Each structure stands twice: as C-alpha cells, then as structure tokens.
Amino acid sequence: MTAPVLSDALGPRARRRVLIASAVTGLALLALLVVAIRRLDANGQLDEEKWKPLTQWAVLKFYLGGLGNTLRAAFTAMAFAISIAGILALGRLARTAAVRWVSTLYVEFFRGLPLYILILFSWLGLPTLGLKLETFWYLVIGLSVYNSAVLAEIFRAGILSLDKGQSEAAYSIGLGYWQAMRAVIVPQAVRRMVPAIVSQLVTLLKDTSLGVLIFYEELLRRARISAEFYQNPVHSVALVALIYIAVNATLSQVATRLEARQRRRYGAGEITVGGVEDLALTSAKAQAADATAGG
Amino acid sequence: MDVVLDNLDLFARGLRTTVSLTLLSYAAAFLIGIVVAAFRVSPVPPLRAAGAVFVGTVRNTPLAVLMVLFFFALPDAGIIYPAFTSAVIVLAAYTGAFIAETVRAGVNTVAAGQGEAARAIGLTFPQTLRIIVLPQALRAVVAPLGSLFIALIKNSSLAALISVGELAGTAEQLITDTAQPLPIFIGVAVAYLMLTLPAGLVVSAIERRVAIVR
Question: In sequence order, which ranges of chain A are alpha helices (DSSP H)?
Fold first, then answer.
C-alpha cells in the first residue's frame, strides 16, 4: 500500500527510473540472500542432520505441546487480566476516593514496570511469601498483573471517550449508577475499544514467551531443550519464530474481519495486531484516518 | 531494605546499563524506522516488499524469541557479537519495525497537496520525502514515538535473558545471591519507575512543543 501523499500516476521517465531502481535493488536483495545462504552453508547449517529432526513427528509433537502450553498460559492469563481490568477500570471511575486511589496506584505502578520483573518476582518472590504453585501459575500471575493494568487503562479510556450525554440520558430515564454502567456505558465503551483490546491480547500471547525465563515449558523453552539435544539452535528457534508469525498472521486475519464488521456497524477504528508498541500504532493510524477524513 | 542499600552501587550500575541500552537502541531504531518507512512508501516494488517482509517478520515474533535467536542460535552460523551489542541490535531491529509503521502512519497524515506541490517544483522522490513529507509526518506522530520509547525502556529488560547486567539482570542476580526477593523487587521497581515516569513527562512536554494538531 502506498501512501496517498506520494502515490501518483508515473510519467514515462519516472517509470523508466523506477524500473532501473527495481532491477538494481532486486539484484542487491538477491545478492544479500545468496550471501546469507552461503554463510549458513559454510557453517554447516544446511546439513541434513540439522533440519532432519524437525521433520520427525515425535519432535514436532514436542513443539506442538509447547504451543499448547503457550496457548494455555495465554488464555488463562487473558481471562484473569480482563476480569481484573474491568474491576480496576470501574474502580478508577468510582465515586469513593479511596477506591479511586487504590485502583490508580495499582494501574500506574504495574503499568510502569517491565513484565520481566513481574514474572521474575512472581516466580522467585511469591514462594518466599508462602505461595507455592506450579510454574504455570507464576507465569499466569505475572502476565495477569501486568496486562490487567494495561487493559484497565484501555477500558477507562473507552468509558471516558463516550459522550457525557449517554450517562445523562441514562440517569434521566431513571437508571442508577450501576444500571447505567451495565446497560448503557460499558457495552458502548467495549465496542469502541475492541481494536486496542485485541491488540493488547495478542501482545499478551507474544509475551507468554517470557515463560522461558522461569523454565515453563512453552514454545521457546521447548525449542531450547530440543536445540540442545539435536545441536540445531538456528533451526529450532527459527521454527518457533515461524510458528509465532503463523499464529499472529491468523489472528491478524480474524482481527481484520472483526474490524471490518465493527466499522460497518459502529464506526470503530482499525485493529492492529502486535506489541504494546502496537497500541501506539493504533493511535497513530487513527490520527492518520482522521486527518485523511478531515482533509 | 538493607539488602538494597548495601547493593546500591550494583543498582546504579544496572541503571546506567539500562539507560545506555535504551538510548543506543532507540537512536539505531529511529534510523532503521525512517529507512524502512521510506522503503515502504517508495515507488520501487522490491524495496516496498523488503520493507514489508522486515516489518511483518520482526513485529510478529516475540522479542524474547528474537533475543534467543540472535544470541544463542546465530553464533552457530558464524554471527557472534558480545551480549550488550547483541541486545542493542535486537532491541533496535524490534523497535525499528514499530517506528517504521508509526512513521508510515504519519506520512499518511500529510496532505496529498504537499507531495503534488513538491513534484510540481521538480523535487525527486527522495527529496520530496526528506524535505517536505518526513518533517511534517514526524511531527504528527510524536506521541506514539514517545510511547515506543517508554516501551523500549521496559523491553530493554529482556536483555537479561542473554545475561546483560542491566537492571532486571542485576535484580535477578541479587535475588539469587541474597534470597530476599521482596526488598530487591521494590528497589528495582523504584528504579524502573524513576525512568518510565519522567520519560512520560518529557514525551508530553516535547509533544506540546512540536506536535501539529490537525
């Protein structure tokens, strides 16, 4: 996709220039590829013994089990994170000051910390505080605590983005605070924030790979185990990267479809799939869309 | 809290490493981001494809996987760098992919007339991009670029996976050595918040100064 500002029908001379530039850069990229392959070959990375294990069913099953563990941890953490985030978002908008402060403190504290630290502490710290669990749960706790803080901010932004007239109208027809929240505010806010929520949930899925740090047998840890056994780290970790790319590409497809439906129905924004970083991207793209629509 | 106060010098060293890791990576990521964004909006199809493949690959792979791939796997293919350099390269590539996408979104905010006017006075594509489009595009995406910087501060902790002694790695080592996780956790949390909270303020200050509101 070319940017609208720079796309224009090319004249004959420009077309010739583009053709020459294409040939030159195409050759350069091809040369790069050849160098990379020769380098792999020179280091014996193309040998049969390196990639052969990855074609065996037993090995693939080991990886699929890792993917299963990744998904299990991710989905459990998603369920916890969403529930806690909902409570926190309402807490930050509560009328009682103490509730507001506690929720704000939680959100600002955990949002500002690296997930690495939270998982590390959950794994090494919680047992000394008397909480002995399976490794799985330490990863889930770390992921849930961090993502509940991030999601709470997304939920809150969604609620605040609604026109004040919505809650006023709800109160004026006699609904109480909670009734208005449940029947009028929250459903609209959630719909509006679907792109950001999906993007953060995909981040959570990617971040599950931090389980490697606490020896939880997710995909990356299993790749390292298998790489150690077969002496093929390049192939093992590359396979994990490919699996993640495939999973995320599938989610992108789903998100795009969801987005199209959302836009048709409610005029919601674009859904991006990726990192925390993608949240920044979502806002940049929304801005771009606004500018295009406005200009 | 004694264990934190006794090891304050270690925390300070970790903090310095985290800061230099973040700054170096962001500078490199910015360059990568601009170049890749330029690739992606260029009229040359192979460049566009190369940019798209880079962004698609790096963005969809978890940072932890990239770290492990670069530091533990690529040495088998003869690509060997020290841990700190490896961390900078990986963080720069990862963040660079996101910066590229953000800048591309910024390019889309620039009015089409700007590009047309630039071509009308005879500027070439690289000139149009450098002189006319990018300056306006960057100012439109100051806030997301700032969020990426703050995300990078936090992401730099993954360098601990390849034993770079920055804040997270220092904390991990100290917890193993002293078996006192709680005070060390509080110490390292304070250290990170000392970076992320002021960074947030600086970003909004810069945004107020240079951002264009359309």
Answer: 12-42, 48-51, 57-92, 97-111, 115-124, 135-161, 164-172, 177-180, 186-207, 219-230, 233-266, 276-294
CA of B70: which chain A residue's CA is closest? A234
Task: Give me the pLDDT at residue B5, please.
Answer: 84
Q: Which residues, other chains included, contact A251 with Cβ-Cβ below 8 Å and sequence gap of 6+?
A: A198, A202, A205, A273
Helices (H), ranges, chain B: 2-6, 8-41, 45-60, 63-68, 83-109, 112-120, 125-127, 134-140, 142-155, 167-178, 181-210
Banded model confidence at residue A271, pLDDT cuts 50, 70, 90: very low
How many angstroms separate the Cα of B92 from the Cα of each of A290, B27, B37, B58?
30, 8, 15, 11
- From the CB of residue B147, how many other CB atoms can be counted at a distance below 10 Å? 23
| Residue B87 contacts residue B21 (beta carbons within 8 Å) | yes
Model pLDDT for residues A6-19, shown as the tens digit of each residue:
666 778 888 898 89
Residues of B in contact with A245 (CB under 8 A): 56-57, 60-61
CB–CB contact B59 A274 (8 Å): yes
Q: pLDDT tens digits, residue range B80-118?
A: 999 999 999 999 999 999 999 999 999 988 888 898 899
Cα A244 from chain centroid (whole Å): 11
Length of chain B: 214
Task: Fill in the amino acid letter for A57.
Answer: W
Q: Is there a contact between A74 and A80 (Cβ–Cβ < 8 Å)? A: no
CB contact under 8 A, B157 and A224: no
The answer to whether B107 contacts A6, with C-beta atoms less than 8 Å apart, is yes
CB A123 within 8 A of CB B168: no
Distance CA B47, CA B52 (A): 9
In angstroms, the first-to-last Cα distance of chain A is 20
Task: State phi, psi for B79 to the nearest 5 degrees.
Answer: -105, 100
B39 in contact with chain A, both atoms CB, cutoff 8 A = no
* B40-74 core/surface letters (b: 16 or more CB in 10 A; e: else): bbbbbebbbebbeebbbebbbbbbbbbbbbbbbbb
Using one digit for the tens of pLDDT, what is the confidence trace for A120-161? 999 999 999 889 999 999 999 999 999 999 999 999 988 988
At residue B207, the pLDDT reads 86
CB B105 within 8 A of CB A284: yes
